[in-house]
Each structure stands twice: as C-alpha cells, then as structure tokens.
Amino acid sequence: MSTITSFQNPRFKRVRKLHESRHRRKLRLFLIEGVRPLRLAMENRFRLEEVFVCQGHPLSPAARELLLELDRRGVPLVEVRRGIFRKMLIGQRNEGLLAVVHTPKRSLESMPLPPRPLVAVLQGVEKPGNVGAVFRTADAAGVGAVVLADPRTDLFNPHTIHASLGAVLAMPCAVATSQEVKDYLQQHHLACYAARVDASQEYTQVDWTAPAAVVLGSEAHGLAPLWLQEDVPGVRLPMLGRVDSLNVSVTAAVIFYEALRQRQHGGEQVAGSS
Amino acid sequence: MSTITSFQNPRFKRVRKLHESRHRRKLRLFLIEGVRPLRLAMENRFRLEEVFVCQGHPLSPAARELLLELDRRGVPLVEVRRGIFRKMLIGQRNEGLLAVVHTPKRSLESMPLPPRPLVAVLQGVEKPGNVGAVFRTADAAGVGAVVLADPRTDLFNPHTIHASLGAVLAMPCAVATSQEVKDYLQQHHLACYAARVDASQEYTQVDWTAPAAVVLGSEAHGLAPLWLQEDVPGVRLPMLGRVDSLNVSVTAAVIFYEALRQRQHGGEQVAGSS
After folding, report:
1. Which CATH number applies to A118-273?
2. b/e per residue, A70-84, with b = 16+ CB within 10 A?
3. How far is CA B222 from CA A19, A155, B29, B125, B192, in A?
4. How many interface pairs between A and B have CB atoms less than 8 angstroms apart?
5. Among A244, B86, B92, B235, which is disulfide-ready with B203 (CB 3.0 to 4.6 Å)?
6. Nearest CA among B14, B110, B255 for reference residue A254
C-alpha cells in the first residue's frame, strides 16, 4: 500500500477538488466517507476508483472487514498521513476511510421499479440535507424510487449521502427534467399528485394503494408550473397552527407513511372511500 | 432612539454573550432574530427587554408595523450601526431586528392543556434543529403541547427558534425531568407511549383519539430507562429498508399526523380495532 505524505500529492489535491460540486460534475467522480455508506456503495456495485485509509486511525471491525473485501476485489488502497487525511474529509466524523467513486448515470430509463410502486419526485430542491432526509425516510417507508427533477444540488453530494445514511446509494433513483419525469410517470401509468399547501384534497383522501407518484417542491421556490397544471391533482397536509408550512422532508415522511399504512391494511381505510 | 456605534458598547457585548447557552441560562435572557418570531413573541406576551434595529437596513412593511407596535408598548428601541448589528446576529439572514427577551418559566404546572390533548415529550434530545423541527410540525398537526424532558439544549436556543419558525414561542411547552413528566402524565390521565424501534406494536395500532402522550428520544442516546419500563408501551414505525433508524423529527411527524388523521376521522380507522 502506497502512502500519501504531502499536501502536494495530486491525489490529495483531486480529493480536495471533489469537495466542490462543479468539480464532481466535471470529473464525474464523487466522495464517500465512512464505513456504512461505503459498504452500501460496494453492495450496490458502484465503481470505486480508490480508497484512502487514515494512517494510525483505529479502524472498527466493520471497517477492517470492508478493507479486506475491497482488497480482494482489487480496489486500490492508499494510506494517508492523519493530518492530510483529515483535510480530505468533508464531514466532522473520521471513520478512517474515504473513497473516490465514479458517478453512475441515474436515468429514468435504467431506473428499476418495483410492482405497484410509490415514486417520490423532488422538484428543484436545493438543500442536500433535505434530499438526504427524504431518501432516508423513503428507504424506511418502502418507497419504490426517488427522482430528482430539475435538481439544484447533485445527487451524490456528500451532505446528501450523510443525511440519507447512505440510502441514496442503495435506492432506485434518477435525475431528469420535470418534463421528462412527467412523461415518464404517464408512460408508466402512475397516478401523480403534487404536494401543495393550497390543494383542496387532503393526503388521506388519496388512494395510495394504486401505483402513484408524489411530487414535492422546495420550500423556497415551490413547484414548477408543470406540476401546478390541472392534470396533476394537489394534495395537502392539514395545518392547524400558526406556522403555515412544513419542511419538505416532513411532508414527504407523512405521505410516505400514509401510503404504507394504506398498503399494509389493504387500502380499506382511505378516508375518501370509507 | 439611541444608537450603538462601538463594539465596546456593553449592550453589544451582552448580546454577544447571549449567543452562548450558558450565558442565556445565567442571565435568564435569550435572543430573537427576525420579524415573524418577534411578532409571535409579542403576541404570546414574552417580556421584550429591548429591540435592536439595524441602521440603514431596508425594513419590510411587516417589520415597520411591528416596530410601531413595539414603540407603542414602550419597548426600548436601539439603533445599531450595520457592521455592529451583523455581529449581533447568529443566523445568516438579516431582517433588521433583534430582540433581547426575558426567559419565561416553562413549568408543567403552568402549561395550558387543551381538552383531549396529544402531548409530545422529547427526552434528552440534543440538537436544537431537531427540537425546532418537532415544534414546527407539532404546531401544524395540532399537538397540544411539547415537553422537553432532561433536555441537552435550551428551549429558547436561537437555532430552535429558527427551525421552529417561531412555533416554540407560540405553543404550550414545558421543561422538566423525566420523572416529573412521567408523574404529570399519570396525574393527567394521559396514555403514554414510547417511540422505540424495538417495540412490538406499530404506531397505527394505537388509539390516538384518547388523551395521550408520545415520548421520543435522541438518536444518539435513545430513551432514558424510565421510559423503557413495562408501564410505558412502545410504538414503532415500520422500517422496510436498509436504513435502521429515522430522524426524530420524522418519527414525530408521522405519529402526530396519524393521531390527527384518527381524530379527524373519528378513530374508527385504527388498524387494531377494525
């Protein structure tokens, strides 16, 4: 295993570049920190270009096991002096491992869909933390896929990976324009609902047991006009308080779990049909 | 209106101290930034000691109206040079106003409770952002009160106020020890449920139409032993994915809205009783 001992090392410099989204986009590479997301990446067949190991860092048993497996698979392992390794990390927490990973294409065409899916569409969402939080909940609630429409952040942003606990690496997902997403949903016969505070229909009145998609916008910008047209029924969460909006990841969670509730209980409990 | 023109001004220095929770605790004062939370504080009868106004900052109509009202109520208004004012703020956004506010007592005894309440108990939660997010959702979902048990952050932390969109200033709430909270819930005949990933009962199986409380712990520390005893039934959200935990504000949101759904639909749709 070679060792990086200088801040002048080109590999170190490249990692530092990959802290910025424009370089990630240009180089079609991104970074994964920590054991758990790295394992998810390996299991989900991401192409790992190289993995950096922090010199002298006490590795957890899970980290050691992972390293052995990476080595078996022929992934280059590079040791890095601790002070230099720390400067490679974006997050606060050092688990001793950092990977440079090839950004895979995440297109609608190649996105696997389970039968009777619920698809979450995040339109124009800008905060990686929010995107990550939605992935984390989507994964837990059994959502079939998450689509970023017109994203204002990159899918494999380190903060997204972190906030998703790695779910963004494990779930079916895609990036596309709103028009492409709308066409896709139509072609796949998914009933499409837009989450909007001014909708007349409450989210509990929808039959979520059918194949469906829910479109969620950013808090700052709302939804693009395409999702506000008449062919997309709106749904809203009741809001009884003084505050007039909910965080997008909260709105998403409540709808995802209502869909799951209906699906688990056969859908006989939809308010609109009872 | 007097004007602060120096970083040596003792009022400036006090505001800077109030950025730290230990000084907020000692002085029993806290800070409110922005127009909306400030209005909520006024409407909810917080005692405003003084309000700083950023010199030359273009105030919104809502801000100007608020200032007039504060002036009518005799709240001292102090102008501050822009460069100094900026250093008084904790948040990124400058709306031109900052208030020093007396920390009110928030005890269980004085906490108003609506009839048939749902009470949210946050036990040992450490991140102000999470506490604020729970308040924001609780307000929207019609939760009766939010109680912090053994908090690891102060109730009126600026980040909590910000993340709650001010709801922490408007909602019934209290701070107490877990034992005090448990006694209180018993005295008030609230059925108490602990959110835990290892519970056998799903959250949809609970009858949330009765007066109830749900206790949520921190992601890092889990719940205190008091809430893991047999007299507190556990409830869990189904988790179908690779990720094995949910953010506390997401868990809270899903339970709050399930309770609201049951309450709005008369409770006939509880899974366990159908």
Report:
1. 3.40.1280.10
2. beeeebeebebbeeb
3. 33, 30, 30, 9, 17
4. 127
5. B235
6. B255
Measured between beta carbons, the chain A residues lying within 8 angstroms of B261 are: 204, 258, 271
CA nearest to B138 within chain A = A241
Nearest CA in chain A to B135: A243
Q: Do residues A51 and A76 lie in contact, with contact meaning Cβ atoms separated by under 8 Å?
A: yes
Whether A269 has a pLDDT exceeding 60, the answer reads no
> Which residues does chain B have with pLDDT short of 50?
268-274
d(CA B268, CA B274): 7
Confirm whether pTM is higher than 0.90: yes
Give the model confidence (pLDDT) of A134-186 as tens digits.
999 999 999 999 999 999 999 999 999 999 999 999 999 999 999 999 999 99
CB B203 within 8 A of CB B252: no
Structural tokens at position B37: 């939370």
Give residue A266's pLDDT.
66
Question: How is chain A split into domains, by residue range?
Answer: 2-102, 118-273
Same fold yes or no, A2-102 and A118-273? no
Dist CA A60 CA A148 (whole Å): 34
Give the E-state strand segments of A34-182 in sequence order: 48-54, 77-80, 97-102, 118-123, 145-149, 173-176
CATH superfamily of B2-102: Ribosomal protein L30/S12 (3.30.1330.30)
Residue of A nearest to B251 (CA): A253
B197, closest residue in chain A (CA to CA):
A140
User: What is d(CA B68, CA B64) in angstroms, rounded to the nearest whole number?
Assistant: 6
**Complex confidence, ipTM:** 0.92
- Closest CA of chain A from B219, distance in Å: 13
Per CB-CB distance under 8 Å, the chain B contacts of A195 are none
Closest-CA distance, B207 to chain A, in angstroms, reads 15
